[in-house]
């Protein structure tokens, strides 16, 4: 039986591209929402979830941090996708004839220079792959879509211009999540550990909690805070560190963190992706 990996969006979306690049042997399963992606894995309809967590230009993906701790899933890998944006149109349409370009508002904002140079009006679509599908269905040679190579292939569109984004390092990080945790050491670039925690209600609790990582030489690559249940007094922190919980210096840091927290939950232990650097 073919294993499946679930993603949010339509076929040809950048999340689909992440599935294609990271797990080419798996069948990609499109889902309407992030919650649907998580449920597909929980129910057994899919074996893995591919969820975007942050973008190098626009920061973290809204709401995803609230979903992960309660998802019941475990992080088993990460993937980085370079977001190359192309101008796609129906076959035979010339670049000089394009008057409008449709895509998600974020992508439209990333191609301002190109669109201004070619006097192309921006049209907001629901998402990137959905815009490509609409362009193919409408068949108007003056209407183009902003999307990736995979969307062009799926919907039979021609690439009129490649890599037209204003910033040349725009990258999205994804997490691969499974029903079962995997804490085995794997990969050849070291391990990553992701966890969430809440500090105890004592003075300088966060400062003291972070001290264990500094004194034990553990590199923390990410630390973000967000409200819990809409409360201004309940703050949860999301963190990524380099290393495995069984590493002595990591174990000491986590033990010290546990002393100053009211809640600590390891979401996953996984190999660092080659593109992380």
TrEMBL record:
Q: Where is the Prephenate dehydratase domain?
A: 4-179
Pfam families, per database record: PDT
Question: Can you supply a Gene Ontology BP term from the record?
Answer: L-phenylalanine biosynthetic process
The Swiss-Prot or TrEMBL record annotates one GO molecular function as: prephenate dehydratase activity
Q: Per the record, what are the reactions this protein catalyses?
A: prephenate + H(+) = 3-phenylpyruvate + CO2 + H2O
PROSITE patterns tied to this protein: ACT (PS51671), PREPHENATE_DEHYDR_1 (PS00857), PREPHENATE_DEHYDR_3 (PS51171)
Q: Where is the ACT domain?
A: 194-271
Q: Which GO terms describe its cellular component?
A: cytoplasm
Instruction: Give the UniProt keywords, A-Z.
Output: Amino-acid biosynthesis, Aromatic amino acid biosynthesis, Lyase, Phenylalanine biosynthesis
Gene3D superfamilies of this UniProt entry? 3.30.70.260, Periplasmic binding protein-like II
Among InterPro entries, the record links this protein to: ACT-like_dom_sf, ACT_dom, Preph_deHydtase, Preph_deHydtase_CS
Which protein is depicted? Answer: prephenate dehydratase
Query: Native species of this protein?
Result: Rhodovulum kholense
